[in-house]
């Protein structure tokens, strides 16, 4: 299956500054009764673009993965194909920068779409379903170092995060990353490679931001979510990833439109 490749490197300076603003989220400890049971999830990141004709099949696969238990499927729209005739309304230079960081981490010659990265360590074309599913299975088998995460909706603008402490503190630095995403969007494309097509995109990431460092100690906190650009994403997720955009150690997701922990 075809892919759209892009060899030009992008500047990461603006992305690094934006991601460093983790303090814009209010983080506070919380006591009280236990919430949901910790989840064990595999994170699949699809780097995609509405301007890429080759991405339609990968988007369909992402939608299927989004419905599977134990998979956090995320669509990150890059902006480097906007110049060919269609500006993707969901694209962000931050997601382009994140893919660029994987380029270096995974020692790849160039970035491309559609690319699916599994738990920050394995990758394949999003059009190669067999290889993607094999990567998911391989990641599930790697249980050492896994971090169970519990996530609950406290109110319309708050979530509760719990991570149990490890017997031995995590020796490498890691980050707790907050993600907000839509469930599904349909867009009528009027120009570019997909002109005339009605594209369905799944789990479109609107915000991805580190909120704290993690070294293996137990965590029990409330995150007060700030407004983001008028969008109202239906879902919120948290994952722990080794610093330097390494392996993702654990993840959890909550429906922000569902019932809160308090009823």
Descriptive report:
The N and C termini lie far apart (47 Å). With 263 residues, the protein is α+β, with helices and mostly antiparallel strands. The protein has 4 helices and 16 strands. Helix content is 17%, strand content 36%. Helix 1 packs across helix 3 (93-105). The longest helix has 13 residues, at 93-105. The strands form 5 sheets. The protein has a 4-stranded antiparallel β-sheet with strand order 2-14-9-8, with no helix packed on it. It has a 4-stranded mixed β-sheet with strand order 4-3-6-7, sandwiched between helices. It is globular and about 55 Å long.
Percentage beta strand: 35-45%
The radius of gyration computed from the alpha-carbon positions, rounded to a whole number of angstroms, is 18 Å
Q: How confident overall, as mean pLDDT?
A: 85
User: Which consecutive residue ranges, at least 5 long each, have pLDDT under 50?
Assistant: 10-27, 30-34
């Amino acid at each position: 299956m075809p892919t759209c490749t892009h060899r030009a490197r992008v500047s990461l300076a603006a992305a690094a500054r934006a991601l460093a603003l983790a303090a814009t989220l209010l983080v506070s400890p919380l006591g009280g009764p236990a919430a949901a049971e910790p989840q064990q999830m595999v994170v699949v990141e699809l780097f995609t673009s509405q301007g890429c004709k080759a991405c339609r099949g990968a988007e369909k696969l992402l939608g299927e993965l989004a419905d599977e238990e134990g998979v956090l499927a995320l669509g990150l729209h890059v902006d480097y194909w906007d110049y060919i005739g269609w500006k993707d309304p969901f694209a962000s230079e931050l997601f382009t920068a994140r893919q660029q960081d994987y380029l270096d981490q995974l020692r790849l010659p160039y970035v491309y779409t559609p690319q699916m990265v599994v738990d920050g360590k394995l990758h394949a074309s999003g059009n190669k379903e067999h290889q993607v599913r094999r990567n998911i299975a391989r990641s599930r088998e790697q249980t050492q170092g896994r971090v169970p995460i519990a996530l609950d909706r406290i109110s319309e603008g708050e979530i509760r995060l719990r991570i149990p402490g490890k017997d031995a503190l995590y020796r490498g630095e890691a980050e707790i990353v907050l993600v907000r995403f839509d469930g599904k969007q349909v867009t009528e494309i009027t120009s570019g490679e997909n002109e005339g097509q009605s594209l369905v995109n799944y789990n479109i990431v609107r915000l991805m931001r580190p909120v704290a460092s993690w070294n293996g100690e137990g965590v029990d906190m409330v995150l007060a979510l700030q407004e983001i650009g008028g969008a109202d994403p239906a879902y919120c997720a948290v994952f722990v990833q080794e610093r330097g955009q390494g392996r993702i150690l654990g993840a959890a997701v909550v429906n922000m439109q569902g019932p809160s922990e308090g009823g």
